[in-house]
Design a protein that fits this description.
Blueprint (H helix, E strand, L loop, with lengths): L1 E6 L3 E8 L2 E9 L6 H14 L9 E6 L5 H12 L3 E3 L9 E2 L9 H13 L4 E6 L2 E7 L4 E9 L1 H11 L20 H28 L4 E5 L3 H4 L8 E2 L3 H13 L1
Parallel strand pairs: 1-4, 4-5, 6-9, 7-10, 10-11
Antiparallel strand pairs: 1-2, 2-3, 7-8, 8-9
Helix pairs in contact: 1-2, 3-7, 4-5
Length: about 260
């Protein structure tokens, strides 16, 4: 089994692959205060919960955008498996032609998303990743990573709103509902955050297709994608395992 770890600012998504098949996936909260042994225990317990054994792991790969946590996770997985861990970063083989100003600074999550998209879909592609930040990545039909957009994430925006406007409540845990014209404060905030984000995604998708091609595949991933995509009018492919699939592909390229 190949063990994959995708560490974001809010959640760490883990998965196990065997014979090109995703056996399980799970999420744990990102906690920078935890030590390597604590993460090793957490990961081991989750692997066991899904009916597998850490001893069956033949190799591992980590993607992390939380810089202080990267060596901790590397150590945790190494202790759990007893084997060397591959970390996504400069020098790793990706197969992606990165055309941004400084390819070395491209986030590991964006690399994984691009690799996953090129493995699973025919470019051109635009990838919307809805996490702590909402990011958009563009891949043209020549398989070049052109760059993208970074937007405050849905929950980050809501947190900023409730923390700076005294009369507005914190509804970060209530991202459900489909009311367009809210008749109370909470529904109005949900309308702005959910349907407003969906409308932004529709508009950006149209503009990205004008640049990379009207036939572009538009993909949505990330923890908040399932809450937003149903309200989009453009055709989005909801792919919740895109980054893990990209990690697994990177493992095969570099192991």
């Amino acid at each position: 089994m190949v063990f994959t770890v995708d560490a974001g600012n809010t959640n760490i998504v883990i998965g196990g692959f065997e014979n090109d098949k995703l056996l399980f996936t799970s999420r744990v909260a990102t906690q920078t205060a935890l030590m390597a042994d604590e993460y090793a225990v957490k990961f081991g317990e989750i692997i066991s919960l899904y009916g597998h054994k850490a001893s069956s792991i033949e190799g591992s790969i980590i993607s992390s955008v939380v810089t202080p946590l990267t060596p901790v996770l590397n150590s945790a997985v190494k202790r759990l498996t007893g084997k060397k861990v591959i970390t996504v970063g400069p020098g790793i083989k990706t197969g992606v032609n990165i055309k941004i100003d400084d390819p070395a600074v491209l986030g590991a999550d964006l690399v994984c998303g691009a690799v996953g998209a090129m493995e699973k879909y025919d470019p051109p592609c635009a990838i919307f990743d809805l996490g702590t930040a909402t990011t958009i990545s563009a891949i043209d039909r020549n398989r070049f990573f052109l760059g993208g957009s970074i937007i405050p994430g849905v929950k980050v925006s809501l947190k900023a709103l409730s923390s700076t406007a005294a009369a507005l409540p914190d509804i970060n845990t209530e991202l459900t509902g489909n009311v367009l014209i809210g008749t109370n404060t909470v529904d109005s905030m949900k309308s702005g955050s959910i349907i407003g984000t969906a409308s932004m995604m529709d508009g950006m998708a149209v503009r990205y297709k004008e640049v990379i091609g009207e036939d572009a595949v538009i993909i949505a991933t990330g923890g908040l994608a399932p809450s937003i995509v149903p309200y989009c009018r453009e055709k989005f492919i909801l792919d919740e395992t895109l980054l893990l699939d990209g990690l697994y592909s990177l493992y095969r390229k570099n192991s």
